Structures are given as structure tokens and as C-alpha cells.
Here is the input.
Amino acid sequence: MLNLFDENTFDSHLPQISEQDCTDQQVLDQIWELKKELQDKVILLGHHYQSDDIIQYADITGDSLKLSQKAAQLNNPYTVFCGVHFMAETADILTRDDQDIILPDRNAGCSMADMANDDEVHKAYDYLTSCTKEKIIPITYINCSAKLKSFVGKHDGTICTSSNAQKIIKWAFEQGQKLLFFPDQHLGRNTCYDLGIKLDEMVVYNPHQVNGGLTPEQIQKAKVILWYGFCSVHQGFTKEHIINIKKESPDTIVIVHPECSFDVVQHADDSGSTAYIIDQVEKAAPGTQFAVGTEINLVNRLAQKYTNKTIKSLSPYQCLCTTMYRVRPRWLLASLNAIKEGRAFNIIKVAEEDKHYARMALNRMLEI
Ligand code: 13P
Ligand code: SF4
Here is the structure.
């Protein structure tokens, strides 16, 4: 096998496998070889939005909830997380200190997770709690930094994914009278609405405005305070896409992820997490037609797998999560090769000071 590393830069997040050194096919073949060789040491986790040239290697595929449940049970020394940064952090929080979680490209982040930071959330929470005597329970979508997971753990809150958001929000209302939900306003709004909370009982806190753009009266009246965050991939789907598809083909079932806007979820026939979408497509009778409002890699995979059904994207444009797509086979090969040579890189380690409460919040979620 070629030496794919520059000795001086193995600590960098940049893989040292050039196209001159290795063709695409050689890269794919070498990943299979290394995976076999390292099978007792390394587990590969893959989120549903990963591309096929990566997901083919995953030992476990899943949505955010399943991957965190699996991470909590891992026993092997190395886990290569084919997903994004917050997922690798979550796995690190849930595994032992002697286990390493590797994110093949350290720059694989999540733009939504970046829309709420620790300082902003502290500031918001202080302001909101100063405006009301009612107890505010902070709930974060799992798409956030470890620091924010720790924040909710410390403040009697917890974490949710798109698969368990309803259960978690119900639980939160048993603990307090109001909810601060971040960073995804859409998942928060869609889920709370399904639970019977009216739109005028929800307000949006915008961290770029003074006091979030909210008066004390608005906060006192609200049941739910939603953070001004969103997923740029899922915001790409619009109500007009649904109207057009229904005009062309009224029988097509429109199914969308709850990170889509309220309007889109309301006009769709169904909505749910990536795992839910996969399940619905799998269960549908042959001949069923679907227009799916979620990331394009998953939609294309479903279309290829269920050839007796018609599956297409809800949007005519490519809704690709470009950060998920940063994990490319060359990065994966570089990661495996480094593990083999005892110099693993891009190991994601959450700071000790954040781990304790973040783990508490995650365990609370997994128990609920
Ligand atoms: P799920 O994995 O919960 O479906 O969420 C999708 C997503 O956007 C992950 O970042
Ligand atoms: Fe983040 Fe959206 Fe990509 Fe998920 S699909 S990782 S929420 S940017």
C-alpha cells in the first residue's frame, strides 16, 4: 500500500492522498482492505445523509437518534463517524475516555448548529428568566455544540432529535411552564403545533437583536420561545414545490423532514425524521409515488433501492448538505490508514468541563 501521509502533517485535518498517488478506484478498494484488516478495532457509523461512496462502508447506518443510541453501546477503541461534528461530539460524550471518535474531515460541521453559541444562549436564558417567574426548560436539538448540551443538562433541560421531539417536549412541559427551544425554530414550531400549542403561543428569539427582539410581555404570554435557527438544506423546500407536484401528480405522497418550514410541513401529506421517512417508503405498496423533502443523498438512495416505487426529490434543485458531503472516500482512507499506523488524527474530544452535564442531558434524553 502507498504511504499516503506526509510525516509532518499527520496531525492536520487535511488528508495527504493526492489523485496522483491513488486513483478513485484504488481509494475505494483500499478502504475495503483496511476495513477488513481493522475490523476488531474500528466501527464505522454513517448518517443517512452520507453519500453512497461512504455509506457502503458503514457498519451501522441511522438517523441522529439511532446513531447516538448505538454510540452509547460501543466497546471498540476507534469509531470513525461519517457524519458531522456534533454527531462525533455526541459519540465522544457517550463513550469511555479510552475510546476515540474520528471525524474524517474536521470541517464537516452543521450550519444550523453554528446558529446558537454558548454566550448567546446564556444571554438569552438570563433575559428570559428575568422576564417571568414561570420555569423555563431549555431543550436543544441534538444539532448543537457539546457546550450547549452541557447548558441544558445544567439547567434541568434535555436534548431531542427529530425522532423523539414530541416525547421530549411533552416531558419538558411536565417539568416547567415554558420552553426555550434551540437552535432549529422549525422543528420546535412543527412539533409544538402537533402537540396542540397554538402559533400565537410561540415567539422567536433572534440572537442578533436586542433582547432577542422580544418584550417582557411577549415572553410572559408565550409558552414556547423558539431560537432563530434553521437548516439551510431543508429551508430549500417550499410550499410551491408541493403545489406544483400535486398539480402534476395528485396521487404523489409528499413526505418531508420536520426541519422544513411550518408552511411546507402543513402542506405535506406526512412528516418525520429520516428514519421515519425511510420506514414509510419501505412500507408503501409497490407503485406508490413519493416526493421527499429531505437531503438528496437519502432521496437518491431510496429511489435506487425501491425501484418498484417512484421516489423523487420534492425540489427540482439539489438539496445537498454540503458539510455532510465533506466526508469523502479520500478522507476516510486517510483516517483508516492513520489508525492502522497508530497515529489517528481528527479525534474529536469534548472538553472535560462540558462532558459531565452534556452526558447527563443525553442520558436523560435516552431514558425518556
Ligand atoms: P435526523 O437524523 O434526526 O433525521 O436529522 C436529520 C439531520 O438534519 C441531521 O443533521
Ligand atoms: Fe445541519 Fe441541515 Fe446538514 Fe443536518 S442537513 S447536518 S441540520 S445543515
